[in-house]
Amino acid sequence: FMNIGAFALITVLGGKGEERVRVRDYRGLGYRHPWAAIAMSLFLFSLAGIPPTGGFMGKFYIFSAAVKEGYIGLAVIGVLNSVVSVYYYLRVTVAMYMEDPSGEGEAPKPVFSPALVLAVVISAYGVLSLGLFPSGYVAMVKQSFLALH
Predict the structure, then answer these.
(1) Cα gap 75→113, rounded to integer Å
(2) What's the predicted TM-score (pTM) here?
(3) Are 10 and 39 within 8 A, CB to CB?
(4) What is the pLDDT of residues 25-64, one digit of tens each?
(5) Mean pLDDT taken over the chain
(6) 59: closest CA among 131, 108, 8?
């Protein structure tokens, strides 16, 4: 959900035939398009593994499983990499809300189609529901694994 939502927003914010892949391309997004910036922040927080998002729960379960199986060194490396990734994801969030977009030229006017809005809303719902209420999803995954055996 977090990847679908983030890439959907990156695609629409880039405009037709343009690439908007640098951090500076998102300067001032929180002022120009606040709802897009809120959704993008949610997806970035999830990618970074910040609670209460699905990304946090995913990382929690992966690192817990590694520790449970005795791969403590691997879990430590994973946690350290996650800490480093927080810097990069939060850098974009800082640019969206705390940096002035001046001097970058006119950004393309994004077209928020109903399909895109629906995809972002569903993605945001998925990210939050996986983070806040993971037990139902975990039970479903466990049942699917039991069905394989």
Answers:
(1) 41
(2) 0.87
(3) no
(4) 889 999 989 999 999 999 999 999 999 999 999 999 999 9
(5) 90
(6) 131
Residue 90: HSE in the Cβ half-sphere, 13 Å Cα cutoff: 9
User: Alpha-carbon distance 132 to 129, whole Å?
Assistant: 5
Whole-angstrom Cα distance, residue 92 to residue 89? 6
| 20 sits in which H/E element | none
Domain that holds residue 115: 2-148
Residue in 75, 67, 56, 81 with CA at minimum distance from that of residue 1:
56
> Do 43 and 6 touch, CB atoms closer than 8 A?
yes
Spatial CA neighbour of 134 closest among 51, 11, 67, 69: 51
Cβ neighbours around 47 below 10 Å, total: 20
Q: What pLDDT is attached to residue 102?
A: 65
> Tokens representing 120?
């972002």
The two structure tokens encoding residue 24: 């500076």
Residue with tokens 């999803």: 137
Burial class of residue 44, CB neighbours in 10 A (0-12, 13-18, 19+): buried
Tell me how many domains the chain contains. 1
